[in-house]
Amino acid sequence: MQQQNPDLLTIWVREYTSDLLSWAVVKTSDLALAEDLVQDTFLAAAEQMDRFRNESQPRTWLFGILRNKIADHFRKTFRDQNRIEEALNSEAFFQSTGGWKAEFAPAPWPDEEMDLLDQPDFIRVLKRCLEMLNPVMSDCIRMRFLEDRKGESICQELGIAATNYWQLIHRAKLTLRNCLDRNWFNHDAT
Question: Which residues span the domain enclosing 115?
């Protein structure tokens, strides 16, 4: 086992905090959470310093720890969402024949040609609707439709199975459609 310089971790904190934090903010969309995860990354690195053998760059090693911390956070968040799971149970939305239940049937969206993503008011409503989703659903939607990433890549990054991913996407789309129907398409303009 190699002897580690006691100041090495301090050097790494100074050198890599900014990069780790920037990446964590992108992955979590939450500065406070990202800061906590980066702090947890350095704590884990301090505990595991004897395992670092310079076979990779310190930055690579730290990013690997952070990636695992983020995945662990989302796995825990996903497990803790039992209340949301029950509320979003697709049986609540559909009749046994497969059609929408009347109280949940979405209103038809306008047929007119418009680019909603160019409308600041729509973007504000969309962001609010995305924020109402649990973090895992929001990340799935963001990565799939805004970042145009493949399902396999999303599953790997979030540490979820493909079946869970498709269920999350399905439920998130139902919830987003309902939110957008209520807050944009059927909202009385003032």
Answer: 82-185
Structure tokens at 29: 């969309």
Q: What percent of the chain has pLDDT over 70?
A: 78
3-state class (DSSP) for residue 46? helix
CA distance 161 to 158: 9
Could you tell me the two tokens for 5? 């310089």
Count of CB atoms situated within 10 Å of the CB of 53: 9
Same domain, 100 and 65: no
Domain annotation covers residue 119: yes
Based on the fold, state whether residues 97 and 17 are members of the same structural domain.
Answer: no
Quickly list DSSP for 7-36. Answer: THHHHHHHHHHHHHHHHHHHHHS-HHHHHH
Secondary structure of the chain: what % helix, strand, coil (to 5)? 70, 0, 30
C-alpha 105/C-alpha 177 separation (Å) is 10
**Do 67 and 91 fall within a single domain?**
no
The model's pTM is 0.44
In terms of Cβ atoms closer than 10 Å to its own Cβ (0-12, 13-18, 19+), residue 134 is buried
The backbone torsions φ and ψ at residue 51, rounded to the nearest 5 degrees and listed phi first, read -90, -15
Mean pLDDT, residues 104-120 taken together: 65
